[in-house]
């Protein structure tokens, strides 16, 4: 299965080492992390030594080598969000879910990520939950947001996931 | 719009297409422009757009009212924003429920809905148009103003407002040398932060030996607190593409790359669509506009590394490698991407190129100061009332930006400092705010224009904490290749952390300065060379804050956790329980309607209780 989908990612990119980062982005988008097996295939197909694939995957913040939770909370820690108190938000998550940035809850429900700037500085502090932006975040707003996902999650996690996915707004062109 | 796009084969074709597009635009009686930039997106502008479209469909008005979803208008704080034509009416803070009323009243009857207008905070008057709003009035929006006229996913919109005419003019009338000469006369300097003269870079790249050359657009905007590049690429991608094409013609490149942050998904999407559309019209590819010029471009996503804003690291990343910089003994204009001559400019620089060609170098040089020409976009953020994107002529005093446009600090507090230029820049105190924003003036004051972030700080911001914040950011982002940067920033952070946690010693200040000098002079790339700026500038302008931390073990702004205590003022507390419920550490106890108490042993000093209290009863001591 994974080879089949990798096939489409690699199409037209074989033996082109410079496509490594783009390929890794696509792998990450598909599996939400970069599995070791795929790294081996990418290494072989692009003609990049495995150690280099690993090094690149490890160097860039966009790539995760561990599976992500079902819900990803991204807290922006850019300067504008920082001066408006974004540090309170990671504290809130730590207090509520017991995870620090980069960690996933044991039940696989949440992953907490921190990013240095999301480019929505005027609305800081900003939190992104599964691709949806939330502006002017406060610890209490974040608490209810996590609770609302958690409630849905207890009913039926897959359902909750598809619901939040549906909420993700894409611009119509 | 026709499904199969007619190929534009000559300058004449382009002019005819423009004429056709303009006349078909007249079929619409009214126009509704809604901001779909990331800021308004976060304010749920998509729901407003959906509601408006649904309402128009219901009333069968789709054919006579055009809904145009555009990029950022700049006034993000007031989003979602909408401009209605005719009348140029500006509505803000919209909700999906407003859609019906807008169509019924404003579109059909031409009546203005007062409650949706912007209220001038000084006069409390409602204002009807953008031009009357103080935030916009003091600006000179050459690039940003274009955003409202184009749907970023429609090349037709861009062509209709005169897009690609600068390219046509270039190919028909200008030799590459003439283009470089024109850019030189305009005085355009790189908007990425360094302020390097653009024409000089292009001329060096043009004269570099080798047939194969590249142009790159740096859209990696990793600076926390800046987002103007995102707004241009998201809102008006063709402006950037056109600029790159003119640049490619000037230096003799046939291939271009846009290196864009992966954290900017909308910018990636819009740039991809724009390139595709330009190809379909034949504006990218072989023999563009019949002028014998061939050029194509690709989008490459970054990996989320701040150091990749540095030219050599960015090029390594484009090659699919780890983004580590290399020594620049030979400049990238001669030895760049794949060791070929390469011109790298940032989004805003490329965006300025076609207006310079269209309006003439003298027009551009007529704005700004002696050393810095044209306009510059700043991201005004932090503890300021009107946050958003601000475009002003170079040389505008910081005070105008912060107070006239930004409206001063929030909650009636006093502005203490302004941080410009991101992690490479510095903090300036209130008495330096009359400085003109100009590459050289800010540099002399120990800060810089940098990427254009302006973060406003008030008395609730601790300057030592700000220095620590930037050092922690840079320590995290340093690629680690060279020792001064890797270890120097680490040690500096260690000292500043000591100071903020009450272990600071007076002699550490000198050590900090010495380290800063070493890191600045011995680091390999721009990241390390400028890393000490936030520390040096806060030491220079706010020494008393460092002293209070070291000598009195006190944080005057009440920010540094180890030096403060949280208490509840029993007289002010009415026992509403908001803080008790908010505390994630279970450190607050108290009965309903009785004054609450914080258990100092359990308290993690996170300040969450403070953000929940409406009665100012939580005190930081």
Structure, briefly:
The complex is a heterodimer of chains A (173) and B (621). Chain A has helices spanning 2-10, 20-31, 36-46, 50-59, 79-83, 87-97, 139-155, 157-167; strands at residues 71-76, 110-115, 127-129, 132-134. Chain A is of the alpha+beta class and 173 residues long.
Task: Give a written overview of the molecule.
The complex is a heterodimer of chains A (173) and B (621). Chain A is elongated. Chain A is 50% helix and 10% strand. The two termini of chain A are 32 Å apart. The relative contact order of chain A is 0.11. Chain A has helices at 2-10, 20-31, 36-46, 50-59, 79-83, 87-97, 139-155, 157-167, and strands at residues 71-76, 110-115, 127-129, 132-134. In chain A, helix 3 crosses helix 4 and helix 6 (87-97) runs parallel beside helix 7 (139-155). Chain A has a 4-stranded mixed sheet with strand order 2-1-3-4, with helices on one face. Chain A is α+β, with helices and mostly antiparallel strands and 173 residues long. With 621 residues, chain B is of the alpha/beta class. Chain B contains 25 helices and 20 strands. In chain B, strand 5 (118-119) and strand 6 (126-127) form a beta hairpin. In chain B, helix 7 (165-173) packs parallel to helix 11 (237-251), helix 7 packs across helix 14 (347-359) and helix 8 runs antiparallel to helix 9 (198-207). The chains are: A alpha+beta (173), B alpha/beta (621). At the A-B interface, helix 2, helix 4, helix 5, helix 6 and helix 7 of A face helix 2, helix 12, strand 12, strand 16 and helix 18 of B.
Question: How much is the radius of gyration of chain B in Å?
Answer: 26 Å
Greatest interface: A-B, 56 and 74 residues
Low-pLDDT residue intervals, each spanning 5 or more residues of chain B: none
Q: So how many helices of chain B?
A: 25
Number of helices of chain A: 8
């Amino acid at each position: 299965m994974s080879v089949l989908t990798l096939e489409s990612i690699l199409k037209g990119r074989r033996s082109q080492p410079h496509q490594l980062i783009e390929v890794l982005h696509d792998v990450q988008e598909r599996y939400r992390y970069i599995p070791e097996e795929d790294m081996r295939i990418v290494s072989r197909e692009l003609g990049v030594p495995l150690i280099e694939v690993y090094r690149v995957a490890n160097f860039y913040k966009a790539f995760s080598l561990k599976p992500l939770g079902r819900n990803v909370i991204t807290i922006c820690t850019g300067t504008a969000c920082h001066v408006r108190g974004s540090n309170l938000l990671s504290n809130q998550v730590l207090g509520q879910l017991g995870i620090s940035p980069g960690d996933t809850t044991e039940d696989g429900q949440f992953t907490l990520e921190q990013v240095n700037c999301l480019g929505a500085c005027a609305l800081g502090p900003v939190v992104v939950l599964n691709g949806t932006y939330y502006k002017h975040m406060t610890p209490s707003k974040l608490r209810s947001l996590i609770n609302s996902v958690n409630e849905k999650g207890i009913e039926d996690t897959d359902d909750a996931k598809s619901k939040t996915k549906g909420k993700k707004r894409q611009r119509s062109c | 719009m026709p499904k199969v796009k007619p190929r534009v084969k000559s300058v004449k074709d382009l002019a005819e297409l423009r004429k056709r597009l303009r006349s078909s635009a007249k079929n619409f009686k009214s126009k509704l422009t809604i901001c779909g930039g990331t800021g308004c997106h976060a304010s749920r502008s998509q729901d407003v757009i959906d509601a408006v479209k649904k309402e128009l469909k219901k009333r069968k008005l789709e054919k006579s009212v055009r809904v145009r979803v555009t990029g950022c208008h700049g006034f993000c704080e007031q989003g979602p924003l909408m401009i209605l034509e005719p009348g140029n009416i500006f509505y803000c803070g919209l909700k999906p429920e407003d859609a019906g009323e807008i169509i019924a009243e404003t579109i059909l009857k031409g009546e203005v809905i007062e409650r949706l207008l912007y209220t001038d905070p000084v006069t409390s008057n409602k204002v009807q148009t953008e031009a009357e709003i103080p935030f916009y009035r003091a600006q000179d929006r050459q690039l940003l103003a274009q955003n409202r006229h184009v749907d970023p996913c429609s090349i037709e919109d861009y062509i209709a407002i005169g897009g690609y005419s600068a390219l046509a003019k270039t190919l028909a009338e200008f030799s590459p040398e003439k283009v470089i000469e024109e850019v030189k006369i305009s005085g355009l300097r790189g908007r990425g932060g360094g302020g390097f003269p653009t024409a000089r870079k292009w001329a060096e790249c043009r004269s570099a030996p080798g047939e194969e050359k590249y142009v790159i657009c740096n859209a990696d905007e990793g600076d926390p607190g800046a987002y103007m590049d995102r707004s241009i690429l998201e809102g008006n991608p063709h402006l950037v593409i056109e600029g790159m094409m003119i640049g490619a013609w000037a230096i003799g490149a046939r291939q271009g790359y846009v290196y864009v942050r992966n954290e900017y998904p909308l910018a990636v999407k819009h740039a991809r669509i724009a390139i595709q559309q330009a190809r379909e019209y034949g504006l990218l590819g072989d023999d563009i506009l019949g002028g014998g010029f061939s050029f194509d471009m690709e989008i490459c996503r970054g990996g989320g590394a701040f150091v990749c804003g540095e030219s050599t690291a960015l090029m390594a990343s484009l090659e699919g490698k780890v983004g580590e910089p290399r020594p620049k003994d030979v400049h990238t204009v001669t030895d760049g991407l794949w060791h070929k001559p390469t011109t790298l400019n940032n989004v805003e620089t490329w965006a300025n190129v076609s207006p310079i060609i269209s309006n003439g170098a003298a027009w551009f040089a007529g704005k700004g100061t002696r050393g810095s020409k044209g306009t510059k976009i700043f991201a005004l953020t932090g503890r300021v009332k009107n946050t958003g994107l601000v475009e002003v002529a170079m040389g505008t005093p910081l005070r105008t930006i912060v107070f006239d446009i930004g409206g001063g600090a929030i909650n009636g507090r006093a502005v203490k400092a302004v941080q410009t230029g991101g992690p490479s820049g510095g903090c300036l105190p209130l008495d330096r705010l009359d400085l003109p924003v100009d590459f050289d003036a800010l540099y002399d004051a120990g800060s810089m224009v940098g990427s254009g972030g302006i973060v406003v700080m008030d008395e609730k911001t601790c300057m030592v904490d700000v220095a620590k914040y930037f050092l922690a950011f840079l320590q995290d982002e340093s690629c680690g290749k060279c020792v001064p940067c890797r270890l120097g920033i680490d040690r500096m952070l260690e000292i500043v952390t000591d100071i903020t946690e009450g272990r600071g010693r007076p002699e550490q200040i000198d050590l900090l300065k010495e380290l800063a000098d070493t890191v600045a002079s011995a680091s390999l790339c721009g990241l390390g060379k400028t890393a000490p700026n936030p520390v040096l500038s806060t030491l220079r302008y706010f020494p008393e804050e460092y002293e209070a931390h070291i000598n009195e073990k006190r944080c005057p702004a009440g920010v540094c956790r180890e030096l403060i205590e949280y208490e509840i003022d029993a007289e002010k507390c009415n026992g509403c329980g908001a803080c008790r419920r908010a505390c994630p550490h279970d450190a607050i106890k108290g009965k309903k309607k009785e004054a609450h108490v914080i258990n100092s042993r359990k308290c993690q000093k996170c300040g969450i209780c403070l953000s929940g209290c409406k009665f100012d009863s939580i005190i930081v001591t």
